[in-house]
Amino acid sequence: MSTATATALKGGEWLIRESQPDNIFTPEDYNEEQKMISEMCTSFLQNEVLPLIERIDKLEPGLMPSLLDKAGEQGLLSASIPEEYGGLGKDFVTSTMINEGLGGGFSFSVALAAHTGIGTLPILYFGTPEQKAKYIPKLATGEWKGSYGLTEPNSGSDALSAKTSAKLSADGKYYLLNGQKCWITNGGFADVFTVFAKVDGDKFTAFIVDRGTEGFTQGQEEHKMGIKGSSTVQLYFQDAKVPVENVLGEVGKGHIIAFNILNIGRLKLCAAALGGAKGAADISIQYANTREQFKQPISNFGAMKHKIAEMAIRMWVAESALYRTAKWVDEKEQELLQSGKPFNEALLGAAEEYAIECAMLKVFGSEALDFVVDEGVQIHGGNGFSAEYIISRAYRDSRINRIFEGTNEINRLLTVDMVLKRAMKGKLDLMGPAMAVQKELLSIPDFGSGDDTLFSKEVKLIANMKKAILMVAGAAVQKLMMKIESEQEILMNVADMAINVFHAESALLRVMKMAEARGEAATSLYIDIARAYLYDTADRVSKSGRDAINAFAEGDEQRMMLLGIKRFTKAEPYNAKEARRRIAEKLIADNKYSL
């Protein structure tokens, strides 16, 4: 077992344990093969996808499948598939990089992510040997395209309330499916569908349904606000005859498939959103450099520099947390493989271990992309509202990501719910640290440790903000007990605190590792990024914490906790304006996002 594996944190444990820079993976650690794969993804988008973007958006028949075929020829569909099934057998970090590298391909990125993720992984991880042998090699090359049918007109976030039914035929050879699925990505051209239905009205079960199955039809393409080139249809089942050997997993255990696949999908969505954000940032920086007002490029103005820098900060922070987590998943997978687990159980177990972090990444990544494209339109001014400019497509396409893979509201609620459940099961010791924070509230504040190393103040601020989370969450659980599930506003406040602190810590650890390797001077711009984000995070955590406290506490308890929030989110004065100017000027000079 590697040193990194031995010291890796368990899911949610970052909240109660201090992390060391040496024990995290960062994009600076990519090996040569990973860098080459990243360049191949960039080249594929530039040469094969972006020149055809208008035709893709018009849903030109056969075009998207042909692009997936080309991606398959280059191995871009099979990175995470074991070699025995015709895949490349690459590690989880590499497959995450491919999702990021192809994330700037607008509707193509959606089609590819759906095929390689929810279209392929359910069969890969839950299929019988016969099912995997039949389907996976053809999904790996793209000869067969994959899709996934979970959502129904009346069941979105509440997936288990699905109405589609499955009944065993009289001869015992088929399940007869009846019902309807909606918003099915790749549904217009896919060959293979993972479809969920209830056997005998209550046993939620997954089925592999082939195109051409008797009784299975599809609707017309949906007219959508964005990702217009992504095929999205409804599926209809009228006594659709699905062979019994096409049951995926166990009857009544479909929820295990649906929820486990979502953990991986959430992390990969963050990666794709990051790739899309970097592409939109490039477009916006280049426009700001060429658009002149008042006899100079608008990139010269402070207001524009603030926007460009804030885009960069959020992307760099998202990237830091994404690859920190992807490596954790990868290390846990290797650990489980070494302990004798088969590959499918190993990756699913690893993704489940870090389900909390995957949910947080999904929220942060999709909202960072939304911020970048929104500011990109603003930088373009009136032209940004014109369909002639590609930033308008980026803006429209971005919006779905806060709904995909569980809405951001659901993911925020899940973040806190999963932490509390692990604490109750004894998997995460929150009680000890939470009690320590309560004792600290009654003590005299520590006004300084005397440690004046480069990042000592930032490390202390992160530790204090974790205390703020423990204080608020612990008090809310004590006060509200079982009622806390219905207090969604408070849970969302706590989730926002956690999401901000996890990302701030990931950025700080990354820059500490960089500074150790390169020296402070060579890392100064990245120190600006980490500090500017941390400075803002303190305010965000303070606001979320106060909102939560004011919602459930009163009297002396309220006053003490509000003082605690003030103490735990106290940041040193920092000139964020100058930091942002330095960040923006680097990108403006390079005419792209170059960090």
Task: Describe the protein's architecture and organization.
The chain is α+β, with helices and mostly antiparallel strands and 595 residues long. The protein folds into four domains: 127 residues, Acyl-CoA dehydrogenase/oxidase, N-terminal domain (Butyryl-Coa Dehydrogenase, subunit A, domain 1), CATH 1.10.540.10; 106 residues, Butyryl-CoA Dehydrogenase, subunit A, domain 2; 156 residues, Butyryl-CoA Dehydrogenase, subunit A, domain 3 (Up-down Bundle); 161 residues, Butyryl-CoA Dehydrogenase, subunit A, domain 3 (Up-down Bundle). Strands 1, 2, 3, 4, 5, 6, 7 and 8 form an eight-stranded mixed sheet that branches. Strands 9-10 form a two-stranded antiparallel sheet. The protein is globular and about 80 Å long. The N terminus is likely disordered.
Q: Bin the strand percentage.
A: 5-15%
Let me know the average pLDDT: 94
CATH architecture of the largest domain: Up-down Bundle
* Largest sheet: number of strands, sense, barrel closure: 8 strands, mixed
Q: Domain count, please report it.
A: 4
Number of helices: 20
CATH class descriptor name of the largest domain: Mainly Alpha
Rounded radius of gyration (Å):
24 Å
CATH superfamily (homologous) name of the largest domain:
Butyryl-CoA Dehydrogenase, subunit A, domain 3
Topology-level CATH name of the largest domain: Butyryl-CoA Dehydrogenase, subunit A, domain 3
Shape: globular
Helix content: 55-70%
